[in-house]
Amino acid sequence: MNKSLLLFGMGAILCSSVAYAAPRKEAGKNEKFKFAKEMARKVNARNAADQEIWRAGSVTNYQWDYDEWIQYNAYKCSYYPNGLLKEEVSEEGYRNFYEYDSEGRLITITFYISSYGDEEEIECIQTFEYDSVIKDLVVYSSEEYPLYDYGYGYGREISRNDLGNITMVRSYNSWQGDITYSGDALLIEYGDDNKANRITYQYTYEDWETGEEETDIYSILDNIVWENTDGQIYEVELNEPLSKAFIGANRIKSASCIDEELPYPANLTAEYDGVNYKVLIELETGEKVSETEFTSLDEYGSYQYYEYAVDYDFDEGEFYIDATQESTATYVVDKFGLILEDSFVGIEHYEEGDEVYSAQIKAEVTYDELHGYPVEYIISSKSDFDDDLVLQEKIVYADYENYGSTVGVESISNSNNDQVEFFNMNGVRVINPTNGIFIRRQGDKVTKVFVK
Fold first, then answer.
1. 60, 180, 238, 243: most buried by Cβ count inside 10 Å?
2. Residue 216, beta-bridge partner list
3. Order of all β-strands in the sheet with 429-430
4. Three-state DSSP state, 209
5. How do strand 246-247 and strand 213-228 relate by DSSP bridges?
6. CA 379/CA 293 separation, integer angstroms
7. Cα–chain center distance at 108
8. Percentage helix, strand, coil, to 5, in the chain?
């Protein structure tokens, strides 16, 4: 059985987008690590989704088959006393078991897989490790198969200076305990004001002809001026394109840019309005390279996103404009993280004409009239090949139980002097919360608060 089908609970868990600097030459491996990080984030966010902890005891999945719903999966859920997801067991007997650390973060998922054509079930343990400073940042994920004494993993190594600010991030993979660095690295240099003033994204590899180690510099942000930064700069999309300069609590106000895919150096400027932002990148010759606008729609993580970008190509020693691109995305979720809309429209403008591509997911949720939790979730989708939205999946949640009024985890300290932390409704840590609903954690006490 395919492993992705065995993590059957994931389809019903919260979804949201995560910015990630995927190295160009290691895309496949980093996609696996990205999936692992997203899996941990979804479970952690699902557990912290609401203040009054109602948890579904059973979940049933249906697929639309021409004119009727056909059940294809059903499973029972159990929870720890504090409401954290503990176990999912399908009707076929497949089982996912979840374990957490004292912070309430997911650390292991134990599940079972079977090889194609082989009825023997094999235990697999997926583990998650977190950064020591950024508490919810997954830095390593591994998959281990005890029966065969076999395992592999993917991660990122983070280096910090004496002041605790990140100076380098690089990816690696492990095989049977042996670590191999993939070659990509994010290098961060700081000025006298203790703020990052130069970020370099590079890739180091061994030349297959000479055997010598070579380094390609993909992108550089230099002379950086910050609107806000905490020094914990670990995800920067410098290459797809440079306009992804909005990095968690860190906000770049301006910078000079060098990129191997641009014909000339460029300048970046950004404007912020609360959680909304606009980023403009122009070549030093005055031509616009890209323009990005992000608008938050609510406190749950919904947003609209617009981007314009120029696609340059290189031929016979010269850069030329191959196409210009425009794209618009809308992402809407409810307070439980269920996707209500996920739509995308892109247009590529070429000399010979335009190419338009689009995709859309829309969903309807039925909520319990008394308690407000979801009881039915119907998903429809539409692609370039469809005239209208097509029914795809239905998820039915039932047998709810209440696990209390707050999500609490065992803590090594119950002191009122414990550090106060804030998280948005997607479970992402926020340094300076403003304008919205946030999760406030101090020691073993977790509450939901509104910040003006």
1. 243
2. 203
3. 429-430, 420-423, 436-442, 445-451
4. coil
5. unpaired
6. 28
7. 18
8. 10, 55, 35
Count of CA atoms in the C-beta half-sphere (13 A) of 23: 27
The CA distance from 205 to 430, in Å, is 36
How far, CA to CA in Å, does 383 sit from each of 64, 84, 113, 333?
16, 36, 32, 20
pLDDT digits (tens, 9 = 90+) for 2-36: 222 222 222 222 122 222 222 233 334 455 556 56
Count helices and strands in the chain by DSSP H and E runs:
2, 29
Retrieve residue 401's tokens: 């139980």
Give the span between the Cα atoms of 451 and 430, in whole angstroms: 12
* Beta-strand runs (E) in 195-317: 196-206, 213-228, 246-247, 250-259, 266-273, 276-283, 288-296, 303-315
Token output for 254:
């301006």
Cα separation, 24 vs 121, whole angstroms: 36
Question: Do residues 426 and 121 make contact, with C-beta atoms less than 8 angstroms apart?
Answer: no
Q: What amino acid occupies position 257?
A: C
Percent of the chain with pLDDT over 70: 74
Query: 448 or 378: which carries more pLDDT confidence?
Result: 378
pLDDT digits (tens, 9 = 90+) for 164-173: 999 999 888 8
